[in-house]
Amino acid sequence: MLWTEKYKPSKTEEIKGQEVGRVRRFVMDYSREKHRALLIYGPSGTGKTLIAEILAKELGYEFKEINSSDSRSKTQIEEVLGNILKQGSLFGNKKLILIDDIDSFSSGDRGGLKAVLDIISESKFPVIMTANEIDMEKMEIFKRKVEYLEFKSLSTEDISEYLKKICDAEKIKYEDSSLKSIARISGGDLRAAILDLQSLTEYTKELKKDDVENLDIRYSSEVINNILIKIFKTKELKLIQEDIDRLNIPLIDVTKPSISAVVFGNEKCLSYFLEENIPREYENIYEAFNLMSRADVFRGRIIRNQHWRYLVYVRDLYSCISLVKEKRNLANIKYYPTKRSPKNNFKLWGLVNRKRWGVADKIANHSHISSWRALAEIPYYSIISKKFDFTDIGLTEEEVEWLKKKIVI
Amino acid sequence: MLWTEKYRPKTFEDVRGQDKIVERIKAMVKNKNIPNLLFSGPAGVGKTSLALVIAKELYGVNWKDSILDLNASDDRGIDVIRNTIKDFARTKPINNVPFKLIYLDESDSLTKEAQHALRRTMENFTNNVRFIFSCNYSSKIIDPLHSRCSVFHFKPLQRKDIEEYVNFIAKNEGIKVNDGAIDALYASTEGDVRRIVNILQSCTALSKTITEETIYGVVSAVRPKEVRFVIEESIRGNFVSAREKLLEVMLQHGLSGLDVIKQIQKEIVDMNISEKKKMDMIDACGEIEFRMVEGSDEFLQLQTLLAKFTK
Questions:
Q1: A406: nearest CA in chain B?
Q2: Are the beta carbons of A348 and B217 separated by less than 8 Å?
Q3: Cβ of A347: how many Cβ atoms within 10 Å?
Q4: All residues at 6 or more sequence positions from A112 whose CB lies less than 8 Å from its CB, including other chains
């Protein structure tokens, strides 16, 4: 059994570091609340979903939940929630409704978000929603309609306290500092910390310092740093190859794993560091990038043909980057990964191009193309909008004004 | 009103330049018996249009209820797609047709895993659903899907098809399009009809008479100016700032790696550098485009190109 289930908090007091009282008041005083739903947002493993489950139990409410594994089309949601909400409290049975991960409703579910909004504005029962991110265009329909409450990452102390209880219950030998390390590595995610603890100690019944250090290596960039120093400052081909072989990084940069990220966790991560730092180290950067580029061709071929032996060439081509430097750059440089990790890009899109995506989405819906394609055609739509009407396909006046100004001709 | 929708083919006869394909599909539709279909071909050659025509011919006036139009690159995750399909497949088709249609556009943007998952979904609904997959590169579709579909390769439209189409629109809209303009449309779009219609409507927004100059005016106005800057900046040796700008342009305009390289290759010819340098740069573009198609990381490949320019 997973310890995340076995040792799941079952009382509100056990949820640390969050404004539990606010949630409780929201549920109990729902009829007097101005907002019709409470949107709890924050990182994973901070207790967002849990608080709703526990409160329902403590207050004696019937718990109804829509989570991300359900289909969440408009009809589906109305099916599940519509009936519950309309029944009212005929039988005096109070209900608490949880709609989990609303930020992961996809664009295809957009009717779904609208349906949620309609339902909460009529609801007689308290509605709690959760999300990791609220700073997204599609979430804007909830603005002013819901109350926001942030759940913060847990402190290292809170997490290690919790782990201590588990260790005692499982009769595991441990040192405080090791528990602290696990807590720190988890980045404030209690669930991740419990999982790490279980994987390290379930069979050995002992938390060894070495093990935790291994865990640490998985996450810290020190090991990457060592490889980079070897590649950039030496020409020891064989040593570098061995180091790359030993590299074991989970997807620290790759938060939304695409297929290539999953397959090439190590190589991809190294490649993100190399690409960012080659220009700082080398004068003639082309030779180095050319090797990276050819390594990437092998990655593509592995994905397509599953010919895994090519992986040695990916490794060797990376190692060879050490050989193409003309002279050693003696300066001590601190290495960073590329800024274009998927998560960053996503943020950029969201912030810079909110309006652009909104317009593209609407045009895409209207004309049977993907939003990506519509986005690429926006300059044309801009010129077209100078004479033709776009409000008939659902653009607002404001969006039309924005579109008109995109291209000056 | 967008002309791309206004002038979207409504019948089999309206679909131009794909005569052989249309003929075969027509026969299938007549017998109300179509297999799963895989349409492959470049953008704007009529794949979506043909799929919609099939639905119209099969189901008549209320055709929209019997076709589910999904875009694989927008609908996040295969689970969403699968659930939507499940919902859709639950209800009965109309008009005595034994099946409903699911059109999955840009299927080649699905990962292999997602495609395998789809294969099972297809099997679950063989009784009452037919799939039409559309993609740019059929090589990116896994074999098991291939083998469950009739495959149709769409060709880019010929100049004469385009001329007919443009003249039809011109007549209907009361605009004048001269011969040079049609050449220009053809040359600057590689036969992508959606692009052609967008350019045509853009030109109409500016003038009732459309000439070669109007077309090139529009085409160069919409081209992001920053790409030129990125090239120049890398030639000046400022690799890091060129690469930053490039990332920004791609995010801002939603350009793919291939979009960018296409434009770089076009820009080079007009640049104020020696012919020898142009030759080297175009050569590099070709090599990098090839690696981009073969590889897995478009932005890395573009950086390599910029690094080459820096040299």
A1: B222
A2: no
A3: 14
A4: A72, A73, A74, A76, A77, A105
B112: nearest CB among A76, A259, A371: A259
Co-location of B133 and B33 in the same domain: yes
pLDDT digits (tens, 9 = 90+) for A69-114: 555 667 777 777 777 766 655 566 788 989 887 876 655 555 778 8
Mean pLDDT, residues B116-121: 83
Q: Which CATH number do you get for residue B285?
A: 1.20.272.10
- Measure the CA–CA gap between A11 and B108, rounded to whole angstroms: 48
- Considering the domain architecture, whether residues B40 and B138 belong to the same structural domain is answered as yes
* A72-86, A229-243, B37-51: the lowest-pLDDT one: A72-86
Rounded to two decimals, the pTM is 0.55
Within 8 A of A303 by CB-CB distance, chain B residues are 112, 296
When pLDDT is averaged across residues B280-297 and rounded to a whole number, the result is: 93
Same domain, B16 and B109: yes
Q: Which structural domain range is residue B126 located in?
A: 3-153
pLDDT higher than threshold 50 for residue A217:
no
Same domain, B191 and B235: no
pLDDT score, position A349 = 42
CB–CB contact A386 B83 (8 Å)? no
What is the domain count for chain B?
A: 3
Calpha distance A285→A279 (Å, rounded): 6
Verify whether the Cβ–Cβ distance B217 to A409 is below 8 Å: yes
| Residue B230 and residue B201 in one domain | no
Q: Among A173-187, A282-296, B25-39, B141-155, name the one with the lowest average pLDDT.
A: A173-187
Where does a domain end: B191, B219, B247?
A: B219
ipTM associated with this complex:
0.80
Mutation choice for B interface testing from A109, A136, A383 by most B CBs within 10 A: A383
Long-range contacts of A350-353 (CB under 8 A, 24+ apart): A350/A135, A350/A136, A350/A137, A351/A135, A352/B251, A352/B252, A353/B251, A353/B252, A353/B254
Residue B134 to residues A363, B39, B48, Cα–Cα distance (Å) = 20, 5, 8
The phi, psi pair for A128, rounded to 5°, reads -115, 130
In this prediction, residues B258-277 reach a mean pLDDT of 90
